[in-house]
Design a protein that fits this description.
The complex is a heterodimer of chains A (269) and B (71). With 269 residues, chain A is an alpha/beta fold. Chain A has 9 helices and 10 strands. Chain B has 71 residues and is mostly beta strands. Helix content of chain B is 10%, strand content 39%. Chain B has one helix at 23-29; strands at residues 5-10, 13-18, 38-41, 44-46, 61-69. In chain B, a hairpin with a 2-residue loop joins β1 (5-10) and β2 (13-18). The chains are: A alpha/beta (269), B mainly beta (71).
Chain lengths: 269, 71
Amino acid sequence: MITATERLEGTDYDRPLVIAGREFTSRLIVGTGKYRSNEEMVAAIRASGAEMVTVAVRRVDLDRGNTESILHHLDPEEFFLLPNTAGCYTAEDAIRYARLGREAGLSDWVKLEVIGDEETLLPDNAQLLQATEVLVGDGFNVLAYTNDDLLVALELEKLGAAAVMPLASPIGSGLGLLNPYSIRILKSRLEVPVIVDAGVGTASDACVTMEQGVDGILMNTALAAARDPVLMAHAMRAGVVAGRAAYLAGRMPRREWAVPSSPTSGMLD
Amino acid sequence: MSEGDIGIVVNGKARRVPEGATIASLLSSLDLDRRLVVVELNEEIVRRTELDEVAVREGDRVELVHFVGGG
């Protein structure tokens, strides 16, 4: 099913995705939350072709005796782990979680998330910038989840973020890419990789998002909440590759009027 | 609760441990794999290499965290 997809990944058509000096063949990064079972999660991640996966840092649940870490199911040799700071509402909390994640995963990478509003889960950009500055100073590779605001994105880059990760639409909404225009502007102005994080709902969303020229996509709910996560992971992988290839190929111009594709001469009398 | 026990708070809940208990002994009494758990003692991370040396004291707040699924 994915032969054509694999043929496009990591070939002469495209360069690998490079974040903080590390190369990735896949332009899809996936989360590990909300799956119905660990087995389904691992199967979906494998089907997606993703090399980097996000994880969250939480208290060990001592009360219910459920002390299993996700590392019982995910081999850090197989997947590069990206700890997140999901659920943090202040720079201080996000920094604390980032440091715990570094200790747990023994890498300096963090998906930095500082939420500002419970209902929309939109980022608190003032806190985000503050946390970015501290964590970059502390030697972290910061992949910063943000909205599609150009000025915030430029500031994140200036502060040393390794990647800027604007949302397509709110986390877990599955609404797809709401503002392709601002994502394109943002991509055209940044040097660091732009990874669209959150909001992609189905394969066409992934494809349209990649067609804007961004460097990659991070998604979780679109896979975990699909009726068949493994099949959706195949679809997303193909969608990302198709969108990337279409971007590189350069689409035809849009026209208001029809233009025939067959010769207009040589018609019968 | 016996003589020589001290009171600490682990993941937000009061617990009693023997006096002189180390973080490592706390982890093993909870049946936790020290390679998979990160320990914070009064909001300071305890490095894995120090787990055997650091003892808890009366009133200490210990957080035991690990990786779970997330996006």
